[in-house]
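Course assignment 3, question 2. Fill in each field.
Student: A.L.
Task: Predict the tertiary structure for the chain below.
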Amino acid sequence: GPCYCDQECGRSLDCCHDYGQSCPVIPCVVSQWSAWSGCTEPCKTTYRVRRRHIVQEPRNGAEACPALEERAGCVEYWTRQGTECQQSLIPALITTGGFGKARKKRAAADGSERAGYCVQFQLVAITPGCRHSHHSYTHWMRYLREGRTVCVECQHPALRSSTQHCYGDGTGSQKNQLLHWQAVGNHQCRGTWRRIRQLGTCSCPSVHSFLFI
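Answer field:
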């Protein structure tokens, strides 16, 4: 009789003798990725999305289609109305202070170096993801501990020429207000802190010094 292309026959072991020739595997085909969307919410660390759709469904035992949606970390410093976010609402993006030396060398080389400053914060809450990352470039995150005082330096190019501040430094925040931060290189490492004061220079131990991005 005719061979019906029902891939379930592979499980029930009653396929036609010529099933492989009559019912070849038809793989899934998906479209190209769409452009990335904007951030889902302004003035906070969220995510952006890109999507693709199925052009051809898999048949005859082919593998399932791959993911049709991807998300990536995202932060926007402007509201939907086009105004700049309040400093107290913008999450601080930080990395290890070890990158500061290379950053200063580049700034000095192109003549764009400007005097920066440092802000002291007391860490209030930290997600477990800061301790669970094992990549070499994330080892600095183990020095983030609740209750510790840390120094975060604002230097070129993160230092904005228009306001002479870095995004997320807490300028204009109220006393004891909880502010948000996000570690660059590990989206699962984030938390809150309180701004203590602004310093002309950083005076914390090097392992407790970080950079605004």
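Instructor remarks: DSSP finds three helices and ten strands in the chain. The first strand starts at residue 29 and ends at 30.
Grade: pending
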